[in-house]
Design brief:
This protein has 416 residues and is α/β, with parallel strands linked by helices. The chain is 33% helix and 22% strand. The longest helix has 18 residues, at 78-95.
Length: 416
């Protein structure tokens, strides 16, 4: 069970310490999650709801502006912003309540002291995560403003996805731990928003684990020594999930490369890969990639069997850049999966239409082998998620399957 969207006062949300032995792991996690949300708030651009994904029903539903970085976060309208400001003021008052803080401090100290005696946790790892979260909240009570200025606080986020039971007998869980943003850092550089995991990456990870064969993640579909590239990888969630998932599908020779543009994002991406694959060599490598002027050298010098991208389009120009970049990378038999977040208000409203426009099959670079094929949308699907995992309004997504399609006229012949 997750923490409530609006944190509750410790005095009304924390269970009595004397009843810890009778509580479930979920109840303790809920209490800790509430305290973490209250006393360790994420910056607005990192404020994701820490909730489990439940896929909703699938259904079909079929502006020109200056190019920006694609990373600014102005998608909420004024009403939403005003509501968020009012809620933050209320939370700030609760956060500064000395009595509530003292109550929380005593509870956390008591929990940490008795944690080793509790038997409700399913594993030592789950117990350690709970103790780590409690310690983090407790430490925040003694962090001064000067400390926060001197050093940014890394936010660690744990994900868990259920791999389809049809792959192997038994229950298979894909666990991922990420450095998912920096609280207290200088947020003036908006292009490093890839330091956090956006909702679409979580949704796509859930989807591919639930049905690997649907997305072509089978030994027969990928073939030997297949190459998979994640575009705009950010924290690397999808690439890391693939690196952990594929061996369970008897795919042990895949070459996975996670790419991004921003140096700080790439540094964090490499750290996350090391965290999740401590023994070298890792099944996931990294490479810098600028879609507007792609350098396809090193690990990107060979044709790619599978491209994946989640929530990477924030400007009309981005879709065209991504199309031409993908055209230079994707093998003739390859598939490009793109999951786009549908935002109904703000500057990114209608961004999905720019993807359709870019991948119509009429424009773009032609396949070098035939000279008659252009990257185009082969399938499109609407996804609605019952639980919000992103920012305000990020509850719907468009899934595109893109590949080489025969066209008549138009398009420039591709020279790889």
């Amino acid at each position: 069970m997750s923490a409530p969207r609006r944190p509750l006062p410790p005095t009304s949300s924390l269970p009595p310490l004397r009843s810890l032995d009778a509580l479930t792991e979920d109840r303790i996690s809920e209490a800790l999650g509430n305290l973490y949300a209250l006393y360790c708030p994420l910056p607005p651009s990192l404020a994701f709801h820490q909730q489990s994904l439940q896929p909703g029903a699938l259904k079909d539903t079929p502006s020109e502006q200056a190019v920006d970085s694609g990373y600014t976060s102005g998608n909420e309208d004024e009403d939403v912003k005003q509501k968020q400001e009012e809620e933050e003021e209320t939370l700030a008052e609760l956060r500064d309540d000395a009595y509530e803080r003292t109550f929380a401090e005593r509870w956390l100290t008591g929990f940490i002291g008795r944690a080793e005696e509790l038997t409700c946790f399913e594993s030592e790892e789950a117990l350690q995560r709970a103790v780590d979260k409690a310690s983090c909240v407790l430490a925040s009570f003694f962090t001064t403003a000067e400390d926060e200025d001197d050093e940014a606080i890394q936010i660690t986020r744990d994900f868990q996805f259920m791999l389809s039971p049809t792959c192997q007998s038994g229950k298979i869980l894909i666990d991922v731990r990420l450095n998912d943003g920096l609280a207290g850092r200088d947020n003036t550089d908006h292009t490093d928003v890839g330091l956090q995991s956006w909702g679409a990456a979580i949704v796509f990870s859930e989807l591919i684990c639930a049905s690997p064969s649907r997305f072509g993640f089978t030994k027969q579909a990928l073939g030997p020594a297949s190459r998979i590239v994640e575009l705009g990888a950010g924290t690397g969630l999808v690439g890391i999930v693939l690196g952990k998932m594929l061996p369970h599908l008897d795919i042990t020779d895949a070459n996975i490369t996670a790419t991004d543009f921003h140096p700080t994002v790439l540094e964090n991406l490499r750290a996350n890969i090391t965290t999740n694959f401590p023994p070298a060599p890792s099944p996931v490598q990294t490479a810098p990639l600028d879609w507007s002027t792609p350098d396809l050298s090193g690990p990107l010098s060979h044709p790619v069997d599978m491209l994946v991208a989640t929530d990477v389009i924030y400007d009309p120009a981005h879709a065209a850049w991504l199309r031409d970049c993908a055209a230079r990378m994707l093998a003739p038999h390859g598939t490009f999966w793109m999951l786009v977040t549908v935002r109904e208000t703000g500057k990114f409203e209608g961004i999905t239409d720019t993807v359709r426009k870019a991948f119509t099959g009429r424009d773009g670079l032609r396949d070098a082998a035939t000279g008659t094929k252009v990257l185009a949308i082969l399938e499109e699907e609407s996804l609605e998620w019952e639980v919000c995992v992103g920012r305000a309004g990020e509850r719907a997504y468009r899934l595109f399957r893109i590949g080489w399609a025969e066209v008549e006229g138009g398009g420039e012949r591709l020279n790889r």
